[in-house]
């Protein structure tokens, strides 16, 4: 077996992206927001993998910026937060689950709850890979029709039960999350949010986002559309070839990097 070569470094710090996103705030706020980058391995590993792939002339590049809608989507945090992050997720994507159960908890504690970041979530079910993903996204929307807190409770339940996720478990999870089971069942049976989920996915594809988790991060807009930098979970195929590069961040804050699922 050949000896692995040296592991690449992150050549484009994500700090720069956050500094751009918070350009209208003072330098102290810039520094505080930039701390997000040093904690989010799922973001930093992305830049390592993509930059290295580009330098070798291989691998998908994806868009560097995008404009996506934020109206009508589930969100966490204050609408007045200086930075907004939009995530496009797939409930059967294991890397989305890793982000939801590890990275998002840190974001909530350090940035969303203190009012520094608004977090918006939208759907990008990769139906070619994940046959239940679109149905699960619609189910999460049905939960959200009851309340914002119901959405997030169901969102968490879906990812916690991901390995055994099936159409038959969607209603069971609703009861586990404490939802009104009758209202949820009526919504799910009527496919109430199928079109909304399809519109989310179509908008993501139009923006060049074909993998999950995918993020757009930028300065919080005054309207219904966010324009920002695109950040993708590290490319699965590239990361395998690069022998899982390590993000150069302090050991105390290092987390396992999130990859992503990309349709074939």
Overview of the molecule:
With 264 residues, the protein is α+β, with helices and mostly antiparallel strands. It has one domain (14-262): Glutaredoxin. It is 44% helix and 15% strand. It is built from 10 helices and 8 strands. A 6-stranded mixed β-sheet has the order 1-7-6-3-4-2, sandwiched between helices. The chain has a two-stranded antiparallel sheet with strand order 5-8. The chain is globular, with a radius of gyration of 18 Å.
Short description:
This protein is α+β, with helices and mostly antiparallel strands and 264 residues long.
The fraction of residues in strands falls at 15-25%
* Domain module tally: 1
The main sheet orders its strands as 1-7-6-3-4-2
Q: What helical percentage do the residues reach? A: 40-55%
Contiguous uncertain segments of 5+ residues: 1-26, 37-60, 234-259
CATH superfamily: Glutaredoxin
Radius of gyration: 18 Å
CATH class: Alpha Beta
The end-to-end span amounts to: 28 Å
Summarize the SSE layout with pairings:
Elements: H1 14-21, H2 27-39, H3 41-55, E1 65-69, E2 74-76, E3 83-89, H4 94-112, E4 117-123, H5 133-144, H6 148-160, H7 170-176, H8 181-189, H9 194-206, E5 211-212, E6 214-219, E7 225-232, H10 236-241, E8 261-262
Parallel strand pairs: 3-4
Antiparallel strand pairs: 1-7, 2-4, 3-6, 5-8, 6-7
């Amino acid at each position: 077996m050949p000896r692995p070569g040296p592991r690449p470094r992150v050549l484009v710090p994500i700090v720069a992206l956050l500094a751009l996103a918070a350009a209208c705030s003072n330098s102290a706020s810039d520094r505080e927001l930039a701390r997000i980058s040093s904690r989010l391995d799922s973001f930093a590993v992305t830049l390592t993998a993509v930059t290295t792939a580009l330098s070798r002339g291989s691998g998908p590049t994806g868009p560097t910026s995008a404009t996506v809608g934020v109206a009508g989507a589930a969100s966490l945090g204050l609408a007045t937060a200086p930075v907004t992050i939009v995530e496009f997720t797939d409930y059967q994507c294991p890397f989305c689950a890793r982000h939801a159960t590890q990275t998002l908890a840190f974001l909530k504690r350090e940035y969303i709850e203190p009012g520094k970041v608004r977090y918006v979530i939208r759907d990008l079910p990769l139906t070619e890979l994940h046959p239940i993903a679109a149905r699960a996204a619609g189910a999460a929307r049905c939960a959200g029709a009851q309340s914002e807190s119901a959405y997030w409770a169901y969102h968490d339940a879906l990812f916690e039960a991901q390995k055994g996720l099936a159409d038959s478990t969607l209603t069971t999870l609703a009861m586990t999350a404490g939802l009104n089971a009758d209202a949820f069942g009526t919504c799910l049976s009527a496919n109430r949010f199928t079109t909304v989920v399809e519109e989310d996915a179509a908008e993501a594809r139009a923006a060049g986002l074909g993998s999950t988790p995918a993020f757009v991060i930028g300065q919080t807009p005054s309207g219904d559309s966010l324009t920002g930098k695109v950040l993708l979970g590290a490319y699965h195929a590239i990361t395998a070839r690069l022998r899982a590069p390590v993000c150069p961040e302090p050991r105390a804050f290092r987390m396992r990097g999130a990859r992503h699922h990309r349709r074939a």
